[in-house]
Design goal:
The structure is a homodimer. Chain A is an alpha/beta fold. Chain A contains eleven helices and 13 strands. In chain A, the strands form three sheets. The first copy, chain A, has a six-stranded parallel sheet with strand order 7-8-6-9-12-13, sandwiched between helices. In chain A, helix 1 packs parallel to helix 6, helix 3 runs parallel beside helix 4 and helix 7 crosses helix 8. Chain A is globular and about 55 Å long. At the A-B interface, helix 7, helix 8 and strand 11 of A face helix 7, helix 8 and strand 11 of B.
Chain lengths: 333, 333
């Protein structure tokens, strides 16, 4: 993926952090690439960047409009299309990580071709993958797993990679989702792979490595999510992790958007991931909990992390409030 | 899917039943559609049909060459392409259920267009699917699950549907694989769906139905298969089965093609399917075992079925040797 920088981040109508997840992730982890945001209205989520028109962004040097929304199902809203047309007219390339391809919208494809602009649909696999074999690979692997979608798996994974490197470890972030891929510049969106090849694609993504090397692999979905569990299991088998970190939103009790589905108990979620993960790596272990406690007060968050850690006998952190050092300590111990 | 009949079945170089799985399934369940076979050599698997050249088959009225092989990964061997060209020249349409699309091979696509022939790539989804929601649907559902691939799930499912109908029940076979789809004439190849939509595609495939109606759903893979488990879990969640039947090859102890992976114990396999299936249908239960005992003698098979049934406390049949009546008894009790 070679997306021209810097970026204008398209927030569009997204009202909250979840809706603008991709834009917010790029803004946080790669601030040097982002020169502005485009929002449909002042009620849209604010990334803390200048609001720029397409023309103003182009005049300031923006090269690409990055679609920063992450809607369920990954479809492009019809009323975004004239906006993307205008962005092409203003001189910007387009980059998106939706299931629906911008490049499949004829109007946009033809205009981009005519104007000499690039369209990047990063969620689409650019190669074929083999069926997974479960063959044991050299090197070490950590995978983040979750009680649900959108609980901080990518953030936790990037924070763990950064901390491992700070400790002098050889570590590589392995992106498995659209935002992670735009941050890393490479990776595989495992939720967009043909189903037979999920595990095989992950085996390809995290190949044999030196014994001391850690692949730090971004998790997806949850084994308890009625829509996405297949992706999560294929990813778990293909990653054959030596270590998992459980990610959780401490303020959530139901699967996001599916109120009939309670979140699993954290112990139950760890145990199921270990039981299923042992199929391809019998040495799998859980090294801790990475929680998003943003909806709790400081005192509540501290109490929640302490009691959860004691109950489960594992380090429990919030990567934003406390950092992930205790997880890396447990990993390297 | 409207594939013109009757068929010439392409066995090609496949040496055994597994390799010619699709051809053998169509031959067994839809014999009235099959007028001949095309084999690369006398060592190829024999379906018990006349060996016909493409020209001879066309002269006898064959309308379509159906590619009857089911290789891992679903790729088309390069040396089949001139054969398929010759079939088009002889007047036949082409139908296949591979991951690789015949219609993507330019030589064949152009020739088919020029000659007015049809090419059917039945594994490819012909519509978009939503993300699964886990919403409880009306009507009853049975799903076959397995200790491995290629253990008789499709055969068992079709036999159960036939027996349910013979008992006067309203039942519908729901095809989820290439062979099942060619037999049923409709269905969804769940292993070819984009991974995010596996469960959603199955929800679409088995919609709300009358309370007394049984959808009898073909299973795929195994929760214990390091390559395919993601498909199996998405299918299990999307099917939300009231009943499962465990399919197993009584002569097999290792995952087919992966000697480092032992098959799970049958009890363990049932328990994991029930534990994970309960997420979308807490009333899930196992109604029996459907075993392929072809590699055992009559006496060995009888002893194996009796001891397995007693150990697990469930009816245990071989759908070929004994039929599936005990499973249907348990289902309707």
């Amino acid at each position: 993926v070679t997306i021209r920088q810097p970026y204008l981040l398209f927030v569009g109508p997204a009202r909250d952090f979840h809706g603008a997840k991709t834009a917010a992730g790029i803004r946080y982890w790669r601030p040097e690439r982002c020169i502005g945001q485009w929002r449909s209205s002042p009620q849209s989520f604010d990334l803390g960047l200048p609001d720029l028109s397409f023309e103003a962004a182009a005049a300031r040097g923006a090269a690409t409009l990055v679609i920063g929304l992450a809607p369920v199902g990954g479809a492009i809203a019809p009323d975004w299309i004239p906006l993307f047309e205008a962005a092409l007219d203003a001189g910007l390339d387009l980059a998106a990580g939706m299931h629906q391809r911008i490049g499949d919208i004829e109007l946009l494809r033809l205009k981009a071709t005519r104007l000499g602009r690039q369209i990047h649909d990063v969620r689409q696999p650019t190669r074929a993958f083999p069926v997974g074999t479960g063959r044991k690979r050299r090197g070490k692997r950590l995978l983040t797993v979750g009680t649900d979608c959108a609980v901080g798996k990518m953030y936790s994974t990037l924070a763990i990679e950064r901390k491992l490197r700070a400790r002098g470890c050889n570590a590589t972030f392995r992106a498995t989702g659209q935002t992670g891929l735009m941050i890393a510049g490479e990776g595989v969106c495992v939720d967009a792979i043909v189903a037979d090849f999920i595990a095989g694609a992950v085996e390809w993504l995290t190949p044999d490595a030196d014994e001391g090397h850690w692949d730090v692999i971004e998790g997806q979905g949850s084994l308890f999510h009625p829509g996405y569990a297949g992706v999560s299991l294929g990813l778990l088998h293909g990653a054959q992790p030596d270590a998992i970190v459980l990610c959780h939103d401490a303020g959530r009790s139901r699967i996001d958007g599916l109120p009939d589905y309670p979140l699993p108990d954290l112990r139950e979620c760890i145990d199921l991931n270990l039981a299923l993960g042992a199929r391809t790596n019998p040495a799998i272990r859980c090294v801790g909990i990475s929680a998003n406690t943003a909806r709790l007060s400081d005192a509540e968050a501290e109490a929640w992390m302490r009691s959860t850690g004691e109950r489960l006998g594992l380090p429990c952190v919030d990567p934003v409030r406390t950092g992930v050092a205790p997880l890396v300590d447990a990993l390297l111990s």
